[in-house]
Amino acid sequence: MARKCEICGKGPQFGNRVSHSNRKTRHKFDPNIQHVRIEVDGVKKRIKICTSCLKSLKKSV
């Protein structure tokens, strides 16, 4: 399952965890993806969207 938003295309980002002693280890940041059932052109579809898109969808309704 791809961790990608179907609306904005937001996917995983990569960075470093930095300890108190300033050692760096690689880390993956996944977006907060939710399964949502929405109605598009009169047809209900189940899509994967990030919570920021979900928040903007709820404002527009």
Automatic annotation (TrEMBL):
Signal peptide: none annotated. It comes from the Bacteria. GO terms for biological process: translation. It holds the Pfam family Ribosomal_L28. GO terms for molecular function: structural constituent of ribosome. The keyword Ribosomal protein applies. Keywords: Ribonucleoprotein, Ribosomal protein. GO terms for cellular component: ribonucleoprotein complex; ribosome. HAMAP family: Ribosomal_bL28 (MF_00373). PANTHER family: 50S RIBOSOMAL PROTEIN L28, LARGE RIBOSOMAL SUBUNIT PROTEIN BL28A. Belongs to the bacterial ribosomal protein bL28 family. This is Large ribosomal subunit protein bL28. It comes from Caminibacter mediatlanticus TB-2. The gene is rpmB.
